[in-house]
Design goal:
Layout lengths: L1 H11 L4 H8 L3 H9 L24 H11 L10 H12 L5 H19 L13 E13 L2 E12 L4 E7 L4 H15 L5 E4 L6 E4 L2 E4 L1 H10 L2 E4 L9 H13 L12 H9 L16 H10 L13 E6 L5 E4 L3 E4 L8 E6 L3 E5 L5 E6 L7 E3 L2 H8 L10 H5 L4 H8 L2 H18 L1 H14 L5 H13 L13 H6 L12
Parallel strand pairs: 1-4, 4-7, 10-14
Antiparallel strand pairs: 1-2, 2-3, 5-6, 8-11, 9-10, 11-12, 12-13
Amino acid sequence: MDQIEEIRRLEVAGESRSEIARRVGVSRPTVRKYLEKDDFAVPAPVSVLVASRSSLLDEHADWVRAVLVADKAVRAKQRHTAQRLFERLVAERGFDGSYSVVQRFVKKWKAADRLAMNGGGFNDLVWPAGSGQVDFGEADFDEASGRVTKSFLVASFPFSNQGFVQVFDGESAECVCQGLKDIFESVGGVPLVLVFDNGAGIGRRVIDQVRETEVFRRFRLHYGFQVRFCNPYSGHEKGNVENKVGYVRRNLFVPVPDLSQISLERFNELLLIGAVDEQTIHYEKDRPVAELFAADKAALAPLPARGFDPVRWESYRVDGYGKVTVDGTHVYSASPGAANGRVWLGFRAHTVEVLSDTGTRLAVHRRGYGRRRSVHVDQQQMMTALIGKHRAWPQSQLRADLSGRACQGFLDSLDKHMFNDYLAAMAGQAARHGLGQVLDSLDWLVANRRAFSLADLASLTSRVDGFGIDRPADTGPDLHRYDQVFGLPDPGEAVPA
């Protein structure tokens, strides 16, 4: 534009067109073009579709469109690629153009087709207060065993843009129900409507219907909210929560959280504490998110009188070793006494509970997820099973689990009778105080006493359970004032001879 201005300025100053061309450094036709131009308004953009040039593919365009339309009735992995269309055009229709022409045509046609399927574009959906969206994301976490990938459930309230997150080892229906239950109780109410992505984690889509899992169906009936599932490939219908998933991953989980010193349940509790930021301003409404979320909370339905236990019960056969295998991957100990019988497994988000056929609790294990094999054994049951089986101790799983601990060497050194006495006593103390407290006490006694008895173990285990090993003795109440009242000497002062 500066060059054009100079040309027109020199022309007004009376310079000839030849002189203008010499001084500006352009040709005379260029000078003439800009001096004779009478409209300098910005031209309207010309659509690529409207202004597309003719190509060698034009005479074959109808055939290509017919193939692409027919492909919509075929499974995705068996549809024509641009490369396959190009090969057929060459072989069947004598096409002598390039592959890039075919590729551009196919890309343009598919973009236009997707736009038409979406009704010409996306609607700017309006979300009333009290409605929510739910989705899962994945992130890495550090545990004592190393870095692992976990799933996190995000529940977002689009009206206020407030979100809540809970972390799980999997994406089962029990995880969804547990996460939503904890979020409901944290906010003090139940959303009127929740939108999910094609029933992921809570059911399975069959054609146009989503068949909910039994536990989620009961959960929904218990809390009384309505549920809606997005149409396939329509993530824009719950774009708020999808954006929130990315926000959570970038902000809450960077740097990678360390869970080596904290349980997943406690970590989830901390995620809910202070989740509502009083300072954040809504990206469109220019009002504090906390203020808008107050309107969300006011629109929530009340919590039911009783909470919901998100558990799924299934009957399993126990093998000869007293263990149950789930999906050929995850092994859970039941009880030696239940060998070759049947037990009930209660699957919750974080745990698996084992009940006998009469309803007696046999064990509670950490729940395993994924395709990697996992073994979950109740060491207290193993200890009970080893009483009277001294010869089985060297090859037992319990001994292997105690590797590196002082108590392992101590138990190795016992003869048959003392071994049975100690194991029986330890099993009894474990039932009252917990196996961890018993093993910690035995470790301490082995490291600090030359000799000790079963009574010493029982006494220390009780102390560990109530106070811990390293807690100093209580000093008791201060009786110094009473000494003064009764005229007694201060214990810290020397008594005169």
